[in-house]
Amino acid sequence: MNKKFTLFLIILTIGIIYIFNIEKALQHKLSILNKSIQSTYINFFATINSSIDKYLNQLDYIDTLKTSNDIHLKYKVLYDTKVNELNELNKNVNIINTTKLNLSLEKVKVLSYYKFNDSSRVIINKKDLNTTKIYSLITFDGFSAGIVLNKNDISIAYLNANERCNYTVFMGKENVPGITSGINKDGNILIKYVPIWKTVTVGDEVITSSMDSIFPYGIKVGKVANISIQDNLQEVLVIPYAKTLGNRDYYLHDNTKSKKANN
Fold it and tell me: Bigger pLDDT: 106 or 78?
């Protein structure tokens, strides 16, 4: 009986030790597994938090950029406005410095085209012009732009591009005479009735002659680009200084008043 009981205790003891060893091993495995789950859980939420923070930071950065862009846009508008004002001021100054003449000039505005399919004739906001006079049209930077006539109580400006825009000019140092007669397909002013015995050179400057009582003397027209012989006369092509296409602001000048004042 004692031997059996002793054997039973030994077996029980071995069993208990074995069971506890397994349990420790299981606990160790579970502990490792638990740490892995905890690590995955922590990394997962850390990634989410990082993404949220990054997204919120991007939103803040976008808002900052929008605010900065709005400020820059306001300053750009102010800058462009001041640049335009300065350009207009420079144009008004340049006409005095360029022509070096004491002219009676009146600002006029283009209201519309005289005909929609013809950009070479425009209506200006000037009333009561003398129907017997031809007035000169000058750009703000002091270049000849065309002539103005009163037609049925409408002030019509015939710009350099129009073949009826005829005024006398001098070319080069020898003051070779000619008459403007519209433009060619390249936008160059055509000068007709140039004496064949007079020498004109490419690059010569062309100015108004005042011989027709339309323009005062010395308003710049452009530079000679080409010379050709037509019958017993020369025809000259001139690159114009004035930019008239789309321009809405000019000076109107009555040269007959200037002549009366000079007399």
Answer: 106
